[in-house]
Specification:
This protein has a 7-stranded parallel β-sheet with strand order 3-2-1-4-5-6-11, sandwiched between helices. It has a two-stranded parallel sheet with strand order 7-10. It has a two-stranded parallel sheet with strand order 8-13. Helix 3 (46-57) packs across helix 8 and helix 16 (404-425) packs antiparallel against helix 17. It contains 17 helices and 13 strands. Helix 4 (69-75) links the parallel strand 2 and strand 3 (81-83). By secondary structure, the chain is an alpha/beta fold.
Length: 462
C-alpha cells in the first residue's frame, strides 16, 4: 500500500514542492486507512472516471453507476458497473447499494438536452440515490456540487445544484458537499474550449466577467479520495485552486508565449447575452447564456481547506499544462479552431457546386458533357438534377454529427467515381487551365482529414 500512496504524489513532484512534512504525513496516514466499498454515480464522467481509478489504486472497491453498461464497459474495461439512469424508469432498487460504505454523486450536466434536464440529473436523481443510501445503511455521502450553487442563484444550473445539495444535507449519516470551481482536465470539453480561446489572437470577453479560481482535475480528485475516509470531514468545502484571476489572465496562463499579447474586446452583457443565446442553438455549440451569466459572477473561495485535504500545494494555472506538452496543446487547439472552418468550406463547395450545376451552368452544355460520359440522352436531365440534389444533400448532412463519418465516406466515394468517369471519357479536363480535376486532390485530402479527425463515438469527455 505504501507504493500505491507514493505513486500519485510523485506524479506532481515537479509542481508541488514546499509542502510541510507534517501535512504530507497526516495525508499519508489518512490514505493508509482500511479500504472501503465506494459507489460513484456518473462513473464515466470527467470526475467520476478519474476518481474511480484513483480509489482503486489506493485499494478501495469501486462500483460505478452508469446509464449504459455496454458502452461503459468498452471505455473502461475491467471496472464494475451497474445500471443507474437518473432520467430513466423504473427507479433503482435499494439492493444497488448493498454493502456500500460511501456514495459519491459525480453525475452532472452543464447544458440540458431533450433527454437530460437539470431537474432530473441534479435534483430528482441524487435525491433518490441519497434516500436509497440511507435505507441501505450507507455511512457517508459525498455530493459534488458547484461553486456558486445557491437556491436563488441567477442560473438554473446553479439553482438545481443547490437543490441537490439540500437533499444531501438531509442525509442522516456523514455528509460532505464539495463545490468545485472551474476544473481543468486536459481533454475535458470545457478545458478544450478554454485552450481554443487561449490561442486566439483576438478574444471577445464579456465586459463584466468576474474572477475565477480554476482547479486541476488531479487536485480535485486527490481531495475527494481523502474525503472518502476522512475521520471528521467538513460538511461543506470549496474545491478551488490557489490563484484567483480574471478570465483573460487565466487564458494567458494557458497560452504559449506566441499569443501572450492578444487583443481583448470587452463586449457589454446586453450584447453578449443575446449573442450567446443564438450561438447555443447551433449544432455542437459549447456556448450558453447561462455560462456567460456565471462568468459574470466572481467565482472564488479560500483554497486553504482544500489544500489541507490534498496534503500538498495545489497547482497554479500556469502549471496546468506541462511544459513538454504546451506546444502540442497549442497545435491541437489551433486545429480544433480550424475544424469548423474546414467543415464549412467543404460544405459550401458541395452546395455551390449543386447550385451551379442546377441553375447557373448552361443546361445544354451540361447535358452534352453527360452524353459524352456515356449517359443516354433521355436520362441526362434526370442524371443532372439528381447529381445536383445529391451534392446539396451531402453539403447539408455534414452538419448532423452522427451522420458525418458516413457523409465523408460518401463524398470521397463520389469524388473518386466522378474522377474515374472524367478520366475515361473527358480526359481533356486534366489539362484544363483552371485545373478542375487537379483541385480534386486537395478536396480528397481535406475530406479524408475530416473523416480521420471525426470521433466515431460522438462527443468527448465533458
Amino acid at each position: 500500500m505504501a507504493a500505491a500512496v507514493a505513486e500519485p504524489r510523485d506524479q506532481h513532484a515537479g509542481h508541488h514542492t514546499g509542502a510541510t512534512s507534517g501535512t504530507q504525513g497526516a495525508h499519508e496516514q489518512l490514505l493508509h486507512r482500511a479500504p472501503l466499498r465506494v459507489f460513484i454515480s456518473g462513473g464515466t464522467g470527467l470526475i467520476g472516471k478519474v476518481l474511480a481509478e484513483r480509489l482503486e489504486r489506493y485499494g478501495h472497491g469501486v462500483i460505478l453507476g452508469v446509464r449504459d453498461e455496454a458502452e461503459a464497459s468498452r471505455s473502461q474495461p475491467g471496472a464494475r458497473f451497474v445500471q443507474l439512469d437518473f432520467t430513466g424508469r423504473p427507479d433503482p432498487s435499494v439492493a444497488l447499494l448493498a454493502g456500500v460504505d460511501v456514495v459519491v454523486n459525480a453525475a452532472g450536466i452543464f447544458n440540458e438536452t431533450f433527454t437530460q434536464s437539470f431537474d432530473d440529473v441534479h435534483v430528482k436523481g441524487p435525491c433518490t440515490l441519497f434516500d436509497l443510501a440511507a435505507q441501505a445503511g450507507v455511512k457517508r455521502i459525498i455530493q459534488i456540487s458547484a461553486l456558486g450553487a445557491e437556491l436563488h442563484a441567477d442560473t438554473r444550473y446553479w439553482r438545481s445544484k443547490a437543490r441537490g445539495d439540500r437533499c444531501a444535507s438531509a442525509f442522516a449519516g456523514t455528509v460532505v458537499v464539495v463545490r468545485p470551481s472551474l476544473v481543468y482536465a486536459g481533454l475535458g470539453a470545457s478545458s478544450v474550449l478554454f485552450q481554443r480561446l487561449a490561442v486566439l489572437p483576438w478574444l471577445p470577453l464579456p465586459a463584466t466577467a468576474g474572477e475565477v479560481q480554476p482547479i486541476h482535475l488531479d487536485d480535485l480528485v486527490d481531495g475527494l479520495v481523502a474525503l472518502v475516509q476522512h475521520p471528521q470531514p467538513p460538511q461543506l468545502v470549496a474545491a478551488v485552486g490557489p490563484v484567483a484571476l480574471g478570465m483573460d489572465a487565466y487564458l494567458r496562463a494557458l497560452s504559449p508565449a506566441a499569443v501572450k499579447h492578444r487583443i481583448v474586446w470587452r463586449i457589454p452583457m446586453r450584447v453578449a447575452l443575446p449573442l450567446a443565446k443564438f450561438l447555443q442553438k447551433l449544432p455542437g455549440s459549447t456556448v450558453s447564456a447561462d455560462a456567460l451569466k456565471m462568468l459574470a459572477h466572481p467565482n472564488t473561495a479560500n483554497a486553504a481547506p482544500w489544500a489541507a485535504l490534498v496534503g500538498r500545494p495545489l497547482r497554479r494555472p500556469d502549471q496546468f499544462v506541462e511544459p513538454a506538452r504546451r506546444q502540442q496543446a497549442h497545435q491541437l487547439a489551433v486545429l480544433a479552431n480550424m475544424l469548423p472552418v474546414l467543415r464549412l468550406s467543404l460544405s459550401l463547395t458541395w452546395l455551390i457546386t449543386a447550385w451551379v450545376s442546377a441553375f447557373v451552368y448552361p443546361q445544354a452544355a451540361s447535358l452534352d458533357l453527360l452524353v459524352r460520359a456515356q449517359v443516354p440522352l433521355v436520362l441526362a436531365p434526370v442524371a443532372l438534377y439528381t447529381a445536383a440534389l445529391l451534392n446539396a444533400a451531402l453539403a447539408l448532412a455534414m452538419w448532423v454529427r452522427r451522420w458525418r463519418r458516413g457523409v465523408y465516406l460518401l463524398q470521397i466515394g463520389l469524388m473518386l467515381v466522378y474522377s474515374a468517369i472524367i478520366s475515361l471519357w473527358l480526359p481533356e479536363y486534366w489539362a484544363h487551365p483552371y485545373g478542375p480535376m487537379v483541385k480534386n486532390l486537395p478536396m480528397l485530402a481535406l475530406t479524408a482529414l475530416l473523416l480521420w479527425l471525426e470521433s466515431p463515438h460522438g462527443r468527448g469527455t465533458r
